[in-house]
Amino acid sequence: MESLPFEIYxxxxxxxxxxxxxxxxxxxxxxxFVASDDALWSNLFKKRWGGDHAAFYAPMGSKxxxxxxxxxxxxxxxxxxxxxxxxxxxxxxxxxxxxxxYLGSRKNQEKVTAHSCHSEFNFNGESSLAEERxxxxxxxxxxxxxxxLEVASAEAKRSRVI
Length: 162
Fold this sequence. Notes:
Blueprint: H1 6-13, H2 18-24, H3 29-35, H4 38-49, H5 51-57, H6 65-78, E1 83-87, E2 90-95, E3 98-105, H7 106-115, H8 128-161
Antiparallel strand pairs: 1-2, 2-3
Helix pairs in contact: 4-5, 4-6, 7-8
């Protein structure tokens, strides 16, 4: 497969939908390069949302069609407002479909909680580092709860529609 010319890869990858194209990018560096081609993602965008949307949302600057596709897909799935979303065990702050900030991961938060159980005091007898970790842990739990609540409410809305 690695010896195939670029054009053959393109003909094959043009037959894939966006999910399979995303999986193909994980196979090898060569496949990632080919599957990231702007022409592939532009065609996928036009198939899903039409040529008028493609003309309006055409990437500007350093953005690629893949990025534009991912943002539009995220808008369709979660809406365009300010949201906290969960993808796997990771949480993100999203606005207008664009990921604004990585908020953290439940996996990392559980590891930090496990490692920070002992208190650490400074010379004045104050627990500055322990308090900082504790407040950070509480904030993380609140953000993760909001993210879980967003997911649960979206699933409840979907089940009511069906």
